[in-house]
Specification:
It is built from five helices and seven strands, in the order αβαβαββααβββ. With 181 residues, the chain is α/β, with parallel strands linked by helices. The protein has a single domain, classed as Rossmann fold (3-Layer(aba) Sandwich), CATH 3.40.50. It has a seven-stranded mixed sheet.
Length: 181
């Protein structure tokens, strides 16, 4: 690779980073060299499962291999609907996605990245969660973990999506440490 290619490659990477930040949270980030400790947060209200899935699709466009999405919320808050949107945004048909409550891990391939969908609802022992080998799964694709509040420790740089009932709608808060979006 010659010097001009390297410079062009670096500026393309910088532009992509800025575009990813802007598209993911629909906010303008003027400087793509965000401080390592910065937290980016977006809170939105959705009024249907389709709107919740649309936020998942939007986030998926900014994800890359090794990214982890932590989903926290009560039963029926829309965690699986959000993951359907993630799948769709990664190129997997949304109808293929179901809650892995009994299988614990579902794997979806066929999109630009594999999606590994984990549900920790039925697990109470941290050793059972460790036995899943989630840190290894995350290397090849995107890892979405429902009931992530059960994790003994949170992966660094993970995206946290908190879903809450708000009457007939849902309130979603998407948080990203280190602005990794």
């Amino acid at each position: 690779m010659n010097r001009d290619s390297v410079i062009g490659h670096e500026s393309t990477k910088a532009r992509k980073r800025t575009v990813r930040l802007v598209s993911c949270f629909r906010v303008f980030v003027a400087d793509h060299r965000v401080a390592r400790t910065e937290r980016v947060t977006k809170t939105t209200t959705t009024h249907s499962e389709l709107e919740t899935a649309a936020l998942g699709r939007e986030l998926a466009a900014a994800l890359s291999a090794g990214d982890v999405v932590l989903l926290v919320g009560d039963l029926g808050a829309g965690k699986t609907a959000f993951v359907r949107g993630l799948a769709e945004g990664l190129g997997v048909h949304r109808d293929e996605v179901s809650s892995p409550t009994f299988t614990l891990v579902q794997e979806y391939r066929g999109g630009r990245l594999p999606l590994f969908h984990v549900d920790l609802y039925r697990l109470d022992d941290p050793r059972e969660i460790d036995d899943l080998g989630l840190d290894e799964i995350a290397e090849d694709g995107v890892l979405a973990i429902e009931w992530a509040d059960k994790l003994p420790s949170l992966p660094p740089g993970a995206v946290r999506v908190t879903l809450a009932h708000a009457g007939d709608s849902r309130r979603l808060t998407i948080e990203m440490q280190n602005a990794k979006c």
